[in-house]
Each structure stands twice: as structure tokens, then as C-alpha cells.
């Protein structure tokens, strides 16, 4: 359309200062009451048609979407005035800084219903006293008034009212508020103004518009692709693999349960009764203390999945779509693969085995290695028909010849993504970028160029400052020697400096010239290769004490490697004390994250010169359960990639070695800044805490050597270790260091000087051998710990004197209730120190209630105490008691009948019928007496016993009474040992009769030391003797 044919070019408005050339609603010559005006449907079509031909003439028009009063999205054409709107920022109710547009055409201050519900949902609206009309006498219907709203502006505080109108819209500050703050007439500070530029749409404003139009696409709920399901194709002849569930630390089970429940509620997991497949889980502890479930699929299904060979687009194809654009956008899908449902026939191989049985994923779980071709095919199907748009896996690139076309393309992309049920990660999206980095190249309106990021590690690497760094740099040159012509002549100054071993290291001008030449050559196209999806990929990684390095390369038919990109990173000061295995592992993670777009979905070869990582990160190796949680997280992260890992000698890893010793700064996130704490004990004012453990570790003759081995490397063979160091050799891969201490996985290794103190704390409440070992295995370790725990328990005189005789009669058990507080067992205990105690035991959870009855055990008092207990836990269905007069009284029977509770009696002379209560009575007397013999009062002894009993795993349930009763663990002194640990329990009901009966074979021989019952009055119950 020519300029002469524009419909409104000669149109004139009678009272307009600008004679011709625009529709009335777009008039700039009038003084408008507001900055935004609606155009009629006819005017929208006319303006849009003309704007497409004459962008310069109508640059103030742009299409966006608003929400109407009925909640429906209606396309509108807005006109943005060239008069710059002004804004002020007011603090409301002392907490919210709200940006408000100055509206001098109204007396009132107005807030939209949406903003009121978002910012002040708790405030109550009062009935409006005024009737409102807008420009043109259109009646408005306010929802109400916010009275006495506390407002602060320019240091002035006022209590004012604000009207709330239905729908959406910007907050408007009217003359009433302006006058209250001394800003009327129009005399407010310059710094409160924000310029709204003509034809300039800020990215934040765009996101507001897009979020309003596509609330589901940019929402926080998990996405679910609704255009099809993923089918996992397994290699022919694949036999299902079922592995056993992993035994995990007891302290983690509650958090694992919480995560399982969350995934079941979301529908990401479903329960199954049987499956030929079973993949063990690895609970990964996140920085916030929660647990993420990771199926170790690399041991089961990953090796047998057939990779889809659907081709990925080459860079030339991507550039062909994007060339000619003015600006470029990149859209990133949130957890893309987790948005894909797996068809029912393929779900069986995604079955995981947990302490709660078999579960299987309904979504494509993280850690399942699928070919990228399937996802690429799906994305191309979703975006088919949209111009100037191309997808590369979970990234979508688009552009337009101008801003209007670019907006249209984005809207089309978002329309199709939302219609497909997908979700977008807004934080990773980039809109209207002048340049965009795609697969190592930078695309702009001027064309394409090589990305400086992939060669920055080489060009910006600092010059060597000592002989070791120079040797590493020479190793880099040697590695790529075939690509460096004339290197012998150019490198003479560096070789000469390297030969001066006994003289000062002096970096000359000739050395600098040679150094710069080498870096430029290694960053040139003569050495660098362009990324090619059809070529084999190699990722080489290395770490020095202060730097990380990764080099991505292609391997060609003759075995020659050509680098695609270099990367290095200075290790932060806070991480320099890490063990070398952590640094080497972090170099691998750095490489995968830095080159994610190259390596994801590709089969690559990973090279490292740190041999233990071949075992830990091996794609066909199980993730060790006792390695540091940080290495577990990294091993799980790598399980989602298709790679083989190989060990190379340090001398053959010269290219990476040089960059790790000459690193540059890099923003790629590797280290988690996790709050690393060492388990510790605390006892009153004197405690064995992580600081004390660290101090004593550095003084311990053995542990300080082990600490050095973990950080700096182990000897080549076990034979080079001293005898006292050999117990650590088999665990060397799983050892790590924190806060000057050595840890075996999550268990702190206690130095020799503190072991006796820790054992005393462990046996302070006279727990048995089994429970002591359970506690120790969740918190600490040293060589021979189990044997020493047995010695402590078997040498405790209090325990020996009070130990029960072996029970001779088998015990018949009650059926186990399926819920807490359905059946309870009760008994009266005593006298102990002249006092009687009421005992109540829940048959499901084994939770005990103990009430000090003093010397009163009458049925009236008994009923009173039961009422208190029932007020806390509710009414049970069944109460089991003995035939004591208190329980058999009419008052007690009536009390139970009135509350709908059935009562059962244990037959006389058969207390085992009420075994739950009777057994607890015996345990209570035994432990309380032992504790009191340590100089503790009766009241304190009861409290200490109950704390330990309620928080210790019960042999018949496999969980503590606290967890069974309240689904949480009690915080005990031992939890100070691991402040950030999550709790874990493994549910099982096996072995009840064995553990309750306490059957033990008793035999002695001549000469054995024994404890003998002493029946003399006034003597100890038992004395030492010899058979």
C-alpha cells in the first residue's frame, strides 16, 4: 500500500491541533484524561492494516491483551501517547512498595480488584459512599473502599482511603493523595518520575502481559504434554532387572516418605503390586534439607533403551530460520522431559523399589536416558506452521523482521505451547535480544560470528607465574602440536625459560609474545572445530588445587581430537579446602553444565585423570550409598546423560591440566555453598561438638594422616600404609572431609581421644547392644566400633545386676492394629520409691504413657487420669487390663461403656495376655532403676527413660513410637550430631516374638565369670562369681 492510499492520511479532526493523518481515538492533539485509549473494532483493523505497511507512521500502536470484566481475554489495540506518563512509589501498610501512575484527571485513588486480592487479601472492604462516573458519564461500580490505609511517600505518612474497582488495571494516584503529600499542584520530586518511552515495551511489562494471557503456561504447576505419550523401546532380547531396595540411614525415611507422598499426589508416581523391574532409589539431600528421589536407572533400564535417531537441526539450519531478524528470543521449557507422560505399556521398566514397596513413574523420570530425537520430533510437531521459529530440544528460538512481527510470533508460540499443556521456565527465557548465543555461535541482525565464550578460557588465561604452570602450558601446546605450524621457532623463549630450573622465573617480553601467539592460534579456526552432531564427542575434565577445566572436542576418523570449546573456572576461596576428589568431580560437573547444549542427548566419552571417579560416576556402576551426599547428587545428575567414562594418565591429559592451572572466572554454577556441618554431641555445658572433633582429628596420629590422604591422594597400594591406617583403605572412595574432620559418608569418624566419651554418652540410658548399634550407625564410626559397643554393654555392672533371666515360655501375640490408638494395654506399676505409676501402651505405635499416681490407685483417680490421656489421643476401641480391683470396678466399667470402649481382662496368673503392658512394666523398672543408680532422681529417671524409649526404633515395628504415633521423630541429644540430617525409618514387623520373648541360650563352663543371685538380706541383688 502506497502512502497516498492510506485511508486516514487526509482525515481531519475538527478540534485537533494536528490537522490530518489519524483516527480520532489515536489523536495526539487532544488533552486526554488517561494515557491509554481503546480503539473500536473497525479502527483496530484499519490501524493494524496501515501499521503493517507504515511502521514509522504508526509506531505508537502495538497489540496486547487485556482481561475484561467477565474474566475473558479480549484482543485490543492500544495507543501509547507520546506524552510521558509519570509514576510515584508509595509504601502501603509499611510493607509494600507500590508503583502508582499519577492521574491528575481524578480526585480519588484507585486500586484494581486483582491488586487488592494480591497485596491486601486480609483487608475488609467497606461500603462506598460516593457514586462514580468515568469520562463520558459511564457509571462505575466500585467493589468498596479501603479505609485508613497507611501510606508513606517522600518521608510523609498519612492514613488515606482507596477505592477498589473490579477487574485489572494499573494503580492510579489521584489528586486527594497528591494533595495529602504536598504534591498538588504538580510539584513532586524529579526522582519519582519514570519515563515510558514511545514504542518501547520493557521486558518486565511484556512478562506481565504474557503472564496474564498465559497463566497456565507460566504457572508453577507441573506441565503435562497432552498431544501424546512417550514410548520407551527396549533392545531385542532385554531381560528385566530387579534389584533389592537399598538400606538407608534411619534418619532419612520421614523425608523420603514425604517426597513419595508428594509425587503420588501429583500423579508422577503410582503404586504397583508386582513388577519384573525394580530400580533402587538414591535419596538426594537438597540444600533446603528436603529429599529428592533419584532412581538409579543406569543399573537397570538405561543400557537397554533404544535411542531415537530423529535428527537434530544443524546450526546452519537454525541460522537459516533466524536470519533476517532484528531481535531474537529464546524460550526455555521447565523440566522438559518431566512434562512428558509415559505410555502405560512402557511404565513397568520405570518401577522403583522403596521401603514402602514398588512404585512406578508415570512421567519420564529424571535419570532415564532417552534419545533426544523423540523430544525433538514432538517439539517440531507442536511448533509446525509458525514462521521464524525453530526448536532445539527444550529450547525454542524465534525472531521477526520488526517488533510487531516478533510479538506475533511469540504469541503464536505461547498459544501452541499452552494448548499442548507445557510449562515455560520464565527465569531462563530471553526476549528481544540483540544477540543470541546458539551452539557456540552468536546470531545478530548483522549475521553470525563465533561465540567469544567458547574461547574466553583460552584467550583470557593468565600468564604462568612459576615453572609448574609453565610446564602445564607446554603440555597444552604438545597436545595440539600438529595444529601449530612453526611452533618450534615461536616457542623458543618459553622452552628456554623452562630449562632454567635453578634460576629465578623471569617472564620476558619474548615470552609474552610467544604466549599470546599460542593462545591466538589455539583459539583460531585452524585448531578449533565446528560442532557437528554426527561426530563423536569427547569431554575432558581436570582440576588443580585452585582451578577447574573442561575441553569439549570432536574425535575424527584418524583418532585426532580437535577442540570445539574451552572452559575453565577459578575455585572460590570457600571451596579451596575441599578434598581433591571433590574438586575433580566438580570439574566434571562444570564441564557437563558448561557444555550442556552440546552433550545432552548425545553419546559422549568422558575423560578424567582421577581413578576413583571412574568407579563413582561409572554409568554401569551403582551409586555408593556411603559417599558424601554432594557426590551422590552429582552422580545422580550425570545419570541423565549418555556417556562412557575412561581413565587417562595425567601426562595424557595435558590440554585440561594447563587450563586448570591457568583458570579464569566463570559464572557457571557448580559449588552449592551448602551448609556443611559435622555431626556432634552436646551434654550440658561440656559437649563433644564438631569443633572439638575437628581439633582432636588434627591431633590424632592416625586420623590426621587419613585426612591428608583424603585431601591430597592415597598411596598407590595398601602395602604402603601402616597397620593402623589399613582399616580405612577399603573405604577410601567413600571418605570425605568437612570442618577438619573425616567422614565416612554421613558418619563422622571419632578420634581416639573422644571415643570413650562418646561411648559413655551412647550408654548413658543403658540401652542394649542392638539399639546402641542402631544409633551409632546413623551418626558416627571408627574401626572396631561394634566390638567396643558390645564390650561396654557386657561390662556395665548396673546392666549385669539388673539383667532379666531368659524367658522360658513362648509368647502369643495380639493381632497388630492397623491404626494408632485402636487398642491400648494398661497396668499399674509399683511401688517404686513409694510411688505407683499408671502405664498405658498403644498396641500399634508402642507409644507409652506413664502417670505418677503417688499412693492413690482408686478407680476414681484412675478414671480421671484416663480422661486426661483420652483428651490428648482420643478414644480407643479396645482396652486390655489385668483383673485388678481398680480395672474390674463398676465405676471403671461404666466409664468405658459410656465412651463406647470394649474391655478385655488378662486371666489370673497369665500376665502375658496383657503382654504389651507387662513387658513395658518390666522394661520400665529395669531401666529406671539402672538410671537411678547413676545418681539420678526418680522423676528425672522416668523422663530420661521415656525420652529414649519413645525416640528409639522399636524392634517389632522397625520405627520409633514417636514416628508411629505422630509421623515425626522427637529431637534428642543425638540429633545435635547431625543438625541438617533428615530422618529415616524402615518399616517392618518381622521378629516380634524373638525380640519380645528375649529367647537366649544360656550356657556356662567351668572357670567362667558369672553374676550370681545373692539372697542375703541387705546385700546387693547379684554378686560376681566363678563357675
From TrEMBL:
<dbReference type="Pfam" id="PF00665">
    <property type="entry name" value="rve"/>
</dbReference>
<dbReference type="InterPro" id="IPR036397">
    <property type="entry name" value="RNaseH_sf"/>
</dbReference>
<dbReference type="GO" id="GO:0003964">
    <property type="term" value="F:RNA-directed DNA polymerase activity"/>
</dbReference>
<keyword id="KW-0511">Multifunctional enzyme</keyword>
<dbReference type="Pfam" id="PF00078">
    <property type="entry name" value="RVT_1"/>
</dbReference>
<keyword id="KW-0540">Nuclease</keyword>
<dbReference type="Pfam" id="PF17921">
    <property type="entry name" value="Integrase_H2C2"/>
</dbReference>
<dbReference type="InterPro" id="IPR021109">
    <property type="entry name" value="Peptidase_aspartic_dom_sf"/>
</dbReference>
<feature type="domain" description="Integrase catalytic">
    <location>
        <begin position="811"/>
        <end position="969"/>
    </location>
</feature>
<dbReference type="InterPro" id="IPR012337">
    <property type="entry name" value="RNaseH-like_sf"/>
</dbReference>
<dbReference type="InterPro" id="IPR050951">
    <property type="entry name" value="Retrovirus_Pol_polyprotein"/>
</dbReference>
<protein>
    <recommendedName>
        <fullName>RNA-directed DNA polymerase</fullName>
        <ecNumber>2.7.7.49</ecNumber>
    </recommendedName>
</protein>
<dbReference type="GO" id="GO:0003676">
    <property type="term" value="F:nucleic acid binding"/>
</dbReference>
<dbReference type="GO" id="GO:0042575">
    <property type="term" value="C:DNA polymerase complex"/>
</dbReference>
<keyword id="KW-0548">Nucleotidyltransferase</keyword>
<dbReference type="InterPro" id="IPR043502">
    <property type="entry name" value="DNA/RNA_pol_sf"/>
</dbReference>
<dbReference type="Pfam" id="PF17919">
    <property type="entry name" value="RT_RNaseH_2"/>
</dbReference>
<dbReference type="InterPro" id="IPR041577">
    <property type="entry name" value="RT_RNaseH_2"/>
</dbReference>
<feature type="domain" description="Reverse transcriptase">
    <location>
        <begin position="265"/>
        <end position="443"/>
    </location>
</feature>
<dbReference type="GO" id="GO:0004519">
    <property type="term" value="F:endonuclease activity"/>
</dbReference>
<dbReference type="InterPro" id="IPR041588">
    <property type="entry name" value="Integrase_H2C2"/>
</dbReference>
<keyword id="KW-0255">Endonuclease</keyword>
<dbReference type="GO" id="GO:0015074">
    <property type="term" value="P:DNA integration"/>
</dbReference>
<keyword id="KW-0808">Transferase</keyword>
<dbReference type="InterPro" id="IPR001584">
    <property type="entry name" value="Integrase_cat-core"/>
</dbReference>
<dbReference type="InterPro" id="IPR000477">
    <property type="entry name" value="RT_dom"/>
</dbReference>
<keyword id="KW-0378">Hydrolase</keyword>
<dbReference type="InterPro" id="IPR043128">
    <property type="entry name" value="Rev_trsase/Diguanyl_cyclase"/>
</dbReference>
Amino acid at each position: 500500500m502506497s502512502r497516498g492510499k492510506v485511508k486516514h492520511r487526509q482525515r481531519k479532526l475538527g478540534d485537533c491541533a494536528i490537522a490530518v493523518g489519524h483516527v480520532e481515538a489515536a489523536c495526539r492533539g487532544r488533552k486526554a484524561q488517561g494515557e491509554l485509549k481503546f480503539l473500536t473494532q473497525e479502527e483496530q483493523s484499519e490501524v493494524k492494516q496501515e501499521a503493517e505497511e507504515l511502521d514509522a507512521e504508526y509506531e505508537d500502536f502495538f497489540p496486547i491483551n487485556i482481561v475484561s470484566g467477565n474474566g475473558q481475554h479480549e484482543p485490543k489495540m492500544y495507543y501509547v501517547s507520546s506524552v510521558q506518563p509519570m509514576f510515584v512509589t508509595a509504601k502501603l501498610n509499611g510493607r509494600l512498595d507500590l508503583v502508582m501512575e499519577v492521574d491528575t484527571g481524578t480526585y480519588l485513588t484507585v486500586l484494581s480488584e486483582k491488586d487488592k486480592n494480591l497485596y491486601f487479601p486480609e483487608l475488609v472492604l467497606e461500603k462506598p459512599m460516593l457514586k462514580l462516573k468515568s469520562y463520558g458519564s459511564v457509571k462505575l461500580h466500585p467493589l468498596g473502599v479501603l479505609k485508613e490505609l497507611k501510606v508513606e511517600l517522600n518521608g510523609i505518612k498519612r492514613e488515606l482511603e482507596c477505592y477498589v474497582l473490579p477487574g485489572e488495571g494499573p494503580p492510579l494516584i489521584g489528586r486527594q493523595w497528591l494533595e495529602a503529600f504536598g504534591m498538588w499542584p504538580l510539584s513532586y520530586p524529579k526522582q519519582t518520575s519514570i519515563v515510558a518511552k514511545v514504542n518501547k515495551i520493557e521486558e518486565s511489562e511484556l512478562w506481565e502481559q504474557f503472564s496474564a494471557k498465559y497463566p497456565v503456561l507460566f504457572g508453577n504447576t507441573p506441565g503435562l504434554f497432552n498431544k501424546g505419550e512417550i514410548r520407551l523401546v527396549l533392545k531385542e532380547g532385554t531381560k528385566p532387572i530387579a534389584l533389592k531396595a537399598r538400606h538407608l540411614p534411619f534418619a532419612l525415611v520421614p523425608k523420603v516418605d514425604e517426597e513419595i507422598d508428594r509425587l503420588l499426589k501429583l500423579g508422577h508416581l503410582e503404586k504397583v503390586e508386582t513388577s519384573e523391574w525394580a530400580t533402587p532409589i538414591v535419596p538426594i539431600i537438597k540444600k533446603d534439607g528436603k529429599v529428592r528421589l533419584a532412581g538409579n536407572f543406569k543399573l537397570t533400564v538405561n543400557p537397554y533403551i533404544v535411542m531415537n535417531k530423529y535428527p537434530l537441526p544443524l546450526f546452519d539450519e537454525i541460522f537459516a530460520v533466524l536470519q533476517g531478524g532484528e531481535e531474537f528470543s529464546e524460550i526455555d521449557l521447565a523440566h522438559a522431559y518431566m512434562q512428558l507422560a509415559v505410555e502405560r505399556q512402557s511404565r513397568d521398566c520405570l518401577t522403583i523399589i522403596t521401603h514402602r514397596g514398588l512404585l512406578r513413574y508415570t512421567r519420564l523420570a529424571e535419570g532415564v536416558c532417552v534419545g533426544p530425537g523423540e523430544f525433538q520430533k514432538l517439539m517440531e510437531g507442536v511448533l509446525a506452521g509458525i514462521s521464524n521459529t525453530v526448536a532445539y530440544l527444550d529450547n525454542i528460538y524465534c525472531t521477526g523482521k520488526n517488533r510487531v512481527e516478533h510479538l506475533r510470533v511469540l504469541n503464536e508460540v505461547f498459544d501452541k505451547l499452552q494448548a499442548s499443556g507445557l510449562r515455560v521456565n520464565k527465569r531462563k527465557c530471553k526476549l528481544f535480544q540483540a544477540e543470541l548465543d546458539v551452539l557456540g555461535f552468536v546470531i545478530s541482525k548483522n549475521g553470525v560470528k563465533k561465540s567469544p565464550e567458547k574461547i574466553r578460557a583460552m584467550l583470557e588465561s593468565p600468564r604462568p607465574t612459576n615453572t609448574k604452570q609453565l610446564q602445564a602450558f607446554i603440555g597444552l601446546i604438545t597436545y595440539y602440536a600438529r595444529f601449530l605450524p612453526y611452533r618450534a621457532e615461536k616457542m623458543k623463549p618459553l622452552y628456554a625459560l623452562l630449562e632454567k630450573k635453578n634460576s629465578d622465573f623471569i617472564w620476558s617480553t619474548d615470552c609474552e609474545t610467544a604466549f599470546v601467539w599460542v593462545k591466538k592460534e589455539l583459539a583460531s579456526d585452524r585448531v578449533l572445530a565446528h560442532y557437528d552432531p554426527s561426530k563423536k564427542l569427547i569431554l575432558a575434565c581436570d582440576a588443580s588445587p585452585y582451578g577447574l577445566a573442561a575441553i569439549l572436542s570432536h574425535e575424527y576418523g584418524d583418532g585426532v581430537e580437535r577442540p570445539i570449546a574451552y572452559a575453565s573456572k577459578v575455585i572460590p576461596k570457600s571451596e579451596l579446602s575441599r578434598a581433591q576428589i571433590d574438586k575433580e568431580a566438580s570439574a566434571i560437573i562444570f564441564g557437563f553444565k558448561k557444555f550442556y547444549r552440546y552433550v545432552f542427548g548425545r553419546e559422549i566419552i568422558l575423560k578424567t585423570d582421577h581413578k576413583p571417579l571412574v568407579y563413582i560416576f561409572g554409568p554401569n556402576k551403582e551409586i555408593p550409598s556411603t559417599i558424601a551426599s554432594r557426590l551422590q547428587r552429582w552422580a545422580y545428575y550425570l545419570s541423565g546423560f549418555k556417556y562412557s567414562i575412561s581413565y587417562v594418565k595425567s601426562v595424557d591429559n595435558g590440554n585440561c591440566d594447563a587450563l586448570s592451572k591457568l583458570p579464569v572466572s566463570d559464572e557457571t554454577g557448580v559449588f552449592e555453598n551448602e551448609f556443611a556441618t559435622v555431626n556432634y554431641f552436646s551434654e550440658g555445658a561440656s559437649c563433644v561438638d564438631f569443633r572439638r572433633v575437628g581439633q582432636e582429628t588434627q591431633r590424632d596420629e592416625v586420623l590426621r594422616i587419613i585426612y591428608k590422604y583424603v585431601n591430597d591422594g592415597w598411596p598407590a597400594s595398601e602395602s604402603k600404609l601402616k597397620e593402623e591406617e589399613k582399616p580405612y583403605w577399603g573405604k577410601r572412595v567413600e571418605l570425605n572431609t568437612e570442618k577438619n574432620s573425616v567422614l565416612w559418608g554421613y558418619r563422622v569418624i571419632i578420634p581416639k581421644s573422644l571415643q570413650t566419651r562418646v561411648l559413655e554418652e551412647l550408654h548413658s540410658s543403658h540401652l542394649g547392644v542392638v539399639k546402641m548399634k542402631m544409633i551409632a550407625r546413623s551418626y558416627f564410626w571408627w574401626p572396631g566400633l561394634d566390638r567396643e559397643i558390645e564390650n561396654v554393654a557386657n561390662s556395665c555392672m548396673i546392666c549385669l545386676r539388673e539383667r532379666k533371666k531368659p524367658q522360658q515360655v513362648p509368647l502369643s501375640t495380639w493381632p497388630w492394629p492397623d491404626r494408632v490408638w485402636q487398642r491400648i494395654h494398661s497396668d499399674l506399676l509399683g511401688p517404686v520409691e513409694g510411688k505407683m505409676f499408671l502405664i498405658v501402651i498403644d498396641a500399634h505405635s508402642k507409644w507409652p504413657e506413664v502417670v505418677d499416681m503417688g499412693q492413690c490407685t482408686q478407680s476414681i483417680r484412675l478414671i480421671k487420669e484416663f480422661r486426661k490421656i483420652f483428651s490428648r489421643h482420643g478414644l480407643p476401641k479396645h482396652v486390655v487390663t489385668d483383673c485388678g480391683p481398680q480395672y474390674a470396678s463398676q465405676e471403671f466399667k461404666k466409664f468405658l461403656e459410656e465412651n463406647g470402649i470394649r474391655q478385655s481382662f488378662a486371666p489370673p496368673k497369665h500376665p502375658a495376655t496383657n503382654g504389651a503392658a507387662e513387658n513395658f512394666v518390666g522394661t520400665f523398672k529395669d531401666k529406671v532403676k539402672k538410671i537411678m543408680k547413676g545418681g539420678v532422681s526418680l522423676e528425672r529417671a522416668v523422663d530420661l527413660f521415656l525420652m529414649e524409649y519413645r525416640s528409639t526404633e522399636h524392634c517389632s515395628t522397625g520405627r520409633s513410637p514417636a514416628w508411629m504415633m505422630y509421623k515425626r521423630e522427637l529431637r534428642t541429644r543425638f540429633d545435635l550430631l547431625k543438625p541438617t540430617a533428615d530422618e529415616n525409618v524402615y518399616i517392618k514387623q518381622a521378629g516380634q516374638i524373638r525380640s519380645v520373648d528375649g529367647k537366649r541360650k544360656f550356657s556356662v563352663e567351668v572357670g567362667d565369670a558369672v553374676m550370681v543371685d545373692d539372697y542375703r538380706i541387705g546385700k546387693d541383688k547379684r554378686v560376681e562369681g566363678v563357675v
